[in-house]
């Protein structure tokens, strides 16, 4: 698959925090473990996948295929930036094997999702292909939740687990609608022009975007996540 990378810049001066980390004001959030954040992400993807399988019209199938695609891609990027380095750091060679297996599973899913876009949602085999893909992803998530994450959590203290959870939540700002400040024009612009362009970006490109997120964008993503967990609706459409 051909990937693209974009150069992006933030609309605010570089923070003294680590790349991708917002200032202290965004960190006064509920303490949630890394495994809980991952499980919430899995549930959201599965919810949209279930809607896609039940969709009756071409319009609904197209819209929901887009939802599932970008959420799966963002989930993959979140794991690439946060989870896989943690697996390797804490579990050594075993963690490297887990990370590579996880990466390959996601790459296969991305290729199939893009193939579904190309084939069209009205093809006779669209739903069978979706069902097969979702069954494979369900098994992937079962392994991740049942083996990989527990093995990682066993090596983490509560504070480190919560820190990884916060860092993972910050990646939720990477949505297809994300806008970044363009210093050449003095205006904000969309980073991606659609879901398919979003899905074609490689991990290095996503990391560059993530490292240039503003504190405001990160804070908004974290508020949306915690809002969705508390049931006040602020997280709808974001997770």
From TrEMBL:
Pfam families: Hemerythrin (PF01814). Residues 1-15 have a biased composition (Polar residues). It comes from the Eukaryota. Gene3D superfamilies: nmb1532 protein domain like (1.20.120.520). Residues 38-151 form the Hemerythrin-like domain. Residues 1-27 are annotated as: Disordered. PANTHER family: HHE DOMAIN PROTEIN (AFU_ORTHOLOGUE AFUA_4G00730). This is Hemerythrin-like domain-containing protein. It comes from Exophiala sideris.
């Amino acid at each position: 698959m051909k990937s693209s990378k974009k150069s992006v810049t933030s609309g605010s001066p570089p923070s003294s925090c680590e790349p991708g980390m917002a200032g202290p004001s965004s960190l006064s959030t509920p303490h949630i473990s890394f495994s809980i954040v991952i499980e919430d992400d899995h549930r959201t993807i599965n919810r949209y996948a279930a809607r896609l399988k039940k969709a009756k019209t071409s319009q609904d199938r197209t819209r929901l295929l887009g939802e599932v695609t970008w959420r799966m891609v963002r989930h993959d990027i979140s794991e690439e930036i946060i989870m896989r380095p943690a697996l390797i750091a804490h579990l050594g060679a075993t963690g490297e094997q887990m990370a590579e297996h996880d990466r390959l599973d996601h790459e296969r899913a991305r290729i199939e999702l893009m193939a579904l876009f190309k084939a069209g949602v009205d093809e006779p085999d669209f739903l069978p292909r979706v069902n097969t893909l979702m069954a494979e992803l369900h098994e992937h998530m079962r392994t991740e939740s049942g083996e990989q994450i527990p093995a990682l959590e066993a090596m983490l203290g509560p504070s480190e687990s919560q820190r990884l959870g916060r860092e993972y939540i910050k990646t939720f700002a990477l949505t297809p609608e994300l806008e970044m400040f363009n210093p050449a024009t003095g205006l904000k612009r969309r980073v991606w022009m659609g879901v398919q362009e979003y899905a074609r970006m490689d991990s290095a490109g996503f990391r560059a975007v993530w490292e240039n997120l503003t504190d405001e964008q990160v804070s908004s993503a974290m508020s949306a996540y915690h809002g969705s967990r508390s049931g006040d609706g602020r997280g709808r459409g974001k997770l």
